[in-house]
Design goal:
The protein has three domains: about 110 residues, 434 Repressor (Amino-terminal Domain), CATH 1.10.260; about 70 residues, 434 Repressor (Amino-terminal Domain), CATH 1.10.260.40; about 35 residues, no CATH class. The chain is built from 14 helices and no strands.
Amino acid sequence: MSFADISAQFKKKQNERVEPEEVRDFEAIHDIRGKMLGVLIRDARLASGTTQQEVAEQLGVSDDEVRDWEYGRVAPTLPQLEMMAYFFDVPLSQFWSEKTLSEAQRERSIPVPKDQYGDIRNKMIAALITMARKEAKLSQEELALKSGQTNEQIVAFEMGEPIPFPVLSTLASALNKSLTYFLEGSGRIGAWLQMQEEYRRFTELPAEMRQFVSQPVHAPYIEIAMRLANMPLQELRTVAEKILDITL
């Protein structure tokens, strides 16, 4: 049985409707979860290039205990999982993930049709340049003058001709756009790039803000902030006035 099969089985067990007079089979649920956890521990260990003996030494347990964890016969405690996450250099959440590290790596290793990808992306960038130019109320001649290009080059770029990155950077500046405006936002490559960019921005936040955001208990406050950010200005003013009425 593959890890995906075990994961699907676990989900089914978790989602089974329990009538008031019924008792959920927690033993079966724990057994399946233990097997999933074992697969994830072994996967993370192999990805880190460490042996069961090294894990045992780091955690102060026997080799047999580590082996039992990986086979799902017994389960480690949360502190032991925390130590393994540190030792394997993986997020702690990897141990309750629905996907192994090797599966994620295989997905990223699936070949992307290079010629097709480049052609499609160049056309998308061309459309974005045209849209930004019209939004800025610039003619092709005016954009050429602002970016140090010829009119013929701007026409070619808007037709999908590949643009050297330094030139694209200058065009972005001339159009009052950041380079992120041109980034690919969909598809496998785009999703991976976006995730890396989001992680980079997260690490640049002040430490106290990172700590606040990463606590699940604070999720409702973040959801409120997101709703407020998307609220029309007049509605936002009304909310602010009501808060002032309550506090004053």
